[in-house]
Design brief:
The chain is mainly β. The chain contains no helices and 37 strands. The protein is globular and about 70 Å long.
Length: 504
């Protein structure tokens, strides 16, 4: 949403902060044609930022390596920076981690084949997967030691100096009744994105497919009381974001700036990585709530993206199909979609969508903020919903519905003569760490960021979801042009709504 290379394409992004500067690294292909062959990625792309929002290209800092370069991580040891990345061994198996060193984060030197790391054959098959490790430094017996958490069954490692590594048996995982990821033996439990010690607990995050009833790729959280585990899924906040039929938002890579623990990931503007380009979305703030659950919050540094203010005006272009004309209030709009309590003919939940008569600069990017509140005039209706509609054609768009049942749903909405037909493609609810639904009658703060086919929604400064407007595997996403205000089964108030053009 915020950044991608001006040429070629990247994937599996990480951000590193050093001396006031944000530095991005990623596996990189010089070709913009979307392919997935291992040999297509033999470069490391870099970009830099002073604020974490506006990026200037450095370009390839490792170029045309004699082997594939896949996902990577960087950690610091003394005056050196160490980069590790997944690669492929002589047997064309993704079973090796290779290392590079630098003193300035720009000039990197390969440490040689003798430092290449393969699965420890004391416990694992040498042909099993080993790919990119997140490194955690901690003090044991008054000295600093390093633990590496990599993807693959042999992906748990330890180092005395942060440079030379030995394999360890995989840490114990107590699944506690949660079904483990359905993965083959040589893949390991999850594609590890990161591990971080927070207030004495270790948060291990990784991604996989086909979990919690939906086929898309998700990021999940396991928590342990020590670096070696045992790790346990966090049932109340297991899925770090929403639960999707698609590959949209991936990774969770931890890093610190001068004051905050932050998280970066990456996103696609298509249905999967074979069908869309990779972008860097806004950086998130890592938030551990009072119950110990890891969640993703809005990072205030992202306010730097706000450029010129946009006058939203008062006009409504379209209303329907189930409801009255919007009411203009002192602070915004009130939109009604009243249920008919005694009607035996109504088969659809009443839905009203009011589309603002204003073309938004969505291709450049827009930030919309304000307050929302949903309630019902009928005492027997306790589950009103409120949300947004990104109009893509005259009859269709992407709907974001926050229900009073503790659910947030995202998907394709089709406006028919007498009803709205929804095809939900992402559901945020129990088991998800992200913001799910609204409390009827309560005022909630929202932030909606939209650029081209991609968008993010925050509710009360917590991430609801990162998503895009691609609705089918073989179809390109459609760039929306207007914003709609959506209400279901009650009355919705949209107040103090403001908008800015992105300045990127």
């Amino acid at each position: 949403m915020l950044y991608k290379p001006s040429k070629g394409r990247f994937k599996d992004i990480m951000v590193f902060w050093h001396e006031g500067k944000y530095v991005l690294f990623s596996m990189y292909s010089k070709s913009a044609v979307i392919k997935s062959e291992p040999g297509d990625y033999r470069n490391v792309w870099s970009a830099e930022s002073d604020d974490g929002v506006h990026w200037r290209e450095v370009g390839p800092v490792i170029e045309d390596a004699p082997f594939p370069i896949w996902a990577m991580a960087v950690h610091k040891v003394g005056d050196k920076f160490i980069m590790n990345h997944g690669s492929f061994g002589a047997e064309s198996k993704q079973n090796v981690i290779r290392f590079w060193e630098s003193t300035d984060l720009r000039n990197w030197e390969y440490t040689g084949a003798d430092r290449d790391l393969y699965p420890d054959e004391r416990w694992y098959d040498k042909m099993s997967r080993l790919d990119c490790m997140s490194v955690v430094a901690m003090v044991e017996d008054n000295k600093t030691v390093y633990y590496g958490y990599a993807t693959g069954p042999g992906g748990f490692l330890r180092s005395e100096d942060g440079i030379n590594w030995e394999g360890l048996p995989h840490p114990k995982i107590d699944w506690g009744g949660i079904q483990p990821p359905p993965t083959s033996d040589d893949e390991g439990i999850l594609e590890i994105g990161g591990c971080q010690e927070i207030d004495g607990r270790f948060y291990l995050v990784g991604g996989w497919f086909n979990m919690m009833g939906m086929s898309g790729y998700g990021t999940y959280t396991l928590v342990g009381d020590s670096a070696v585990g045992p790790f346990r899924p966090d049932p109340a906040a297991y899925r770090l974001c929403g639960n999707s039929l698609r590959w949209v938002a991936l990774w969770a890579r931890f890093f610190h700036n001068e004051s905050d623990l932050l998280v970066n990931g990456y996103m696609y503007d298509g249905f999967t990585y074979e069908k869309g380009l990779t972008w860097l979305p806004p950086i998130k703030k890592a938030v551990v709530d009072e119950y110990g659950h890891l969640r993703l919050g809005y990072w205030n540094g992202n306010d730097a993206i706000k450029g010129a203010a946009i006058d939203l005006g008062d006009g409504i272009l379209h209303v329907g199909p189930n409801g009255a004309e919007p009411t203009k209030t002192k602070r915004g709009w009130e939109i009604t979609a009243d249920p008919e309590i005694n009607s035996t003919a109504r088969l659809n939940v009443p839905t009203n969508i009011a589309i603002l008569d204003l073309d938004l600069p969505i291709e450049q990017g827009v930030v919309i903020e304000g307050n929302i509140r949903a309630y019902s005039k009928e005492s027997r209706i306790v589950t009103p919903g409120i949300g947004f509609y990104l109009q893509e054609t005259a009859e269709q768009g992407t709907a974001i519905l926050l229900e009073g049942l503790g659910l947030t749903k995202i998907g394709l909405a089709t406006l028919e003569a007498s009803k709205v037909v929804f095809d939900w493609q992402d559901v945020i609810g129990p088991g998800c760490a992200s913001a799910a639904g609204i409390v009827p009658g309560k005022t909630h703060k929202f932030k909606l960021l939209v650029r081209e086919k991609m968008f993010e929604l925050y509710l009360d400064d917590m991430l609801a979801q990162t998503f895009n407007t691609t609705h089918a595997p073989g179809e390109p996403g459609r760039t929306p042009s207007r914003l709609g205000l959506l209400v279901q089964n009650g009355v919705g108030a949209f107040e103090d709504v403001r908008a800015w053009q992105m300045n990127i």
